[in-house]
């Protein structure tokens, strides 16, 4: 933590600590930083003025890195985080299968597959790939251009859906999720009874 001996930054940093350098000057922290930043700083336990900085591995009692501890982290920390993410995210297998079973041309199958895979060159994806800097929709200039926006939420897209006489969801608005909207469109025949003239 300390900078070069006697430097101005070294002096400023030590003002954030009290006494022997093992406790934070909480009053000063609260004056200088937001509550979130203060919380993050307080989570760091300073070793004191007379201790040099060193590396420590938090998954062993000694603080030393071992292959055994890395294996434990892989199974018990990273593996558990991945499992919880998989549970939170819905399975798209059903949608993929529904798309490939559609009675339509291969080009439509491929296009919908690219949509489901988030592989269209919309502004949001181009910014993510550092190809452009502007996420705004090039048609309406009112919102970020995502696949969902281009196909469902953009005023131009909504006009196309209205002309196509496709029933929109009961709320009167397309969802913020592309997957929900695509599922609604693919299941039109099941949800909306056939209209008779």
UniProtKB/TrEMBL annotation:
<dbReference type="Pfam" id="PF13966">
    <property type="entry name" value="zf-RVT"/>
</dbReference>
<protein>
    <recommendedName>
        <fullName>Reverse transcriptase zinc-binding domain-containing protein</fullName>
    </recommendedName>
</protein>
<dbReference type="InterPro" id="IPR026960">
    <property type="entry name" value="RVT-Znf"/>
</dbReference>
<feature type="domain" description="Reverse transcriptase zinc-binding">
    <location>
        <begin position="94"/>
        <end position="161"/>
    </location>
</feature>
């Amino acid at each position: 933590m300390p900078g070069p001996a006697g430097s101005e930054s070294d002096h400023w940093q030590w003002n954030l600590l009290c006494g022997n350098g093992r406790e934070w000057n909480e009053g000063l922290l609260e004056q200088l930083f937001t509550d979130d930043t203060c919380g993050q700083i307080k989570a760091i336990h300073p070793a004191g003025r007379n201790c040099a900085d060193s590396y420590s591995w938090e998954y062993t009692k000694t603080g030393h890195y071992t292959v055994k501890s890395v294996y434990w982290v892989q199974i018990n920390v990273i593996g558990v985080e991945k499992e919880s993410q998989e549970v939170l995210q819905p399975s798209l297998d059903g949608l993929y299968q529904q798309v490939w079973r559609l009675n339509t041309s291969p080009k439509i199958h491929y296009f919908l597959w690219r949509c489901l895979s988030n592989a269209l060159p919309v502004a949001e994806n181009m910014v993510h790939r550092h190809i452009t800097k502007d996420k705004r929709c090039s048609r309406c200039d009112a919102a970020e251009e995502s696949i969902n926006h281009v196909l469902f939420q953009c005023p131009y897209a909504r006009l196309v859906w209205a002309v196509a006489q496709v029933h929109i969801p009961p709320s009167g608005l397309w969802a913020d999720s592309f997957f929900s909207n695509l599922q609604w469109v693919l299941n039109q025949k099941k949800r909306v009874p056939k209209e008779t003239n």
